[in-house]
Amino acid sequence: MIKLPGLIDPHVHMREPGASHKEDFDSGTSAALAGGFTIILTMPNTKPPIFDSDTLDMVLNAASKKARCDYAQFVGAGPDNAEKAASLADKAAGLKMYLDSTFGELRLDDMTLWLPHFEKYPKNYPIVAHSESRSMAAAILFAAIYDRPVHIAHISLKEEVLIIKAAKEHGIKVTCEVCPHHLFLSNEDIPLISNGHAGRGEVRPRLATKEDVDALWKNLDVIDCFATDHAPHTIDEKDSDNPPPGFPGLETALPLLLNAVSESRLSISDIIEKMYSNPKRIFSLPDQPETWVEVEENAVYEIKAEDQFSRCNWTPFEGWKVKGKISKVVLRGETAFEDGKILVQAGYGRNVRG
Ligand code: NCD
Ligand code: ZN
Q1: 213 found inside a domain
Q2: Nearest residue CA, atom 5 of ligand 1?
Q3: Domain limits at 213?
Q4: Residues at Cβ < 5 Å from ligand 2 ion
């Protein structure tokens, strides 16, 4: 048995408000606990999006009633809310900026709209940028100009990891995360995931080439966090004519990474650093006393959507055999998950910015 600290996932989509049939704070935080996460940071691209004090209060109210693990909520950057968003910083996980193709309404194409956000958002919290390729380079330039931290969400490309490496070497305050699906899948796996339904392979950023995947593995020291970008859409939606992009990930991330440990591609200390120490520091998160995760490092099992708590009812890793199983999660002194069962009530979870 290995004991890990309660893990932190800095990138989760809960779908509440507006699309609880995909996920809500009850099902999503159950999935988080089953995956070994005791803090999740939730994204603002809901319906309506979270972009001001009313919408933030609305989502925090739902979370306080339903969440089973701890959480904090991002505020989204819109075309004219820079001042408002900055004033909410102490209540929010951080500011999320959507600078590239995404699901939902929060997208800022025009770079002049980025300026007031980089200028005004308090520097003690990071701005998280969904920015790919050249817009990622632009986001890093903004961080350099304003001398403030930016955290690049879900990097997937060789050029991205190499630019971040160079930016870090030059003292720019940039950190980044990578998702398990960009480490364990490439665009060559799309036919298998799709199984005749092209929409199942859709995710943003798209699955990249083998060369990109290799570059991420080669530059693991540049990667600060593993984040799931848990983006649940139901299997019917994925198989429809207009499939939304996104993969669920909360319940598969740690088992896939433990499996990589069993293959000597990673170490347990990499997991602790990228799923606990680094996200805790980057997002200024508090200690969770009497909180830990127990894993059976030699237990082999098969990933199955039917075993998951997520409402989306599918996984791109269906049928994968992994070595490393989460047996127990203790959160603030209470056993929250054991032997496949969630043991804390809805509402047990706390807002870590509360
Ligand atoms: C995300 C979603 O579904 O909310 N989808 C995705 O493919 N990652 C949106 C996003 O994070 O860009
Ligand atoms: Zn996302």
Answers
A1: yes
A2: 246
A3: 2-342
A4: 229
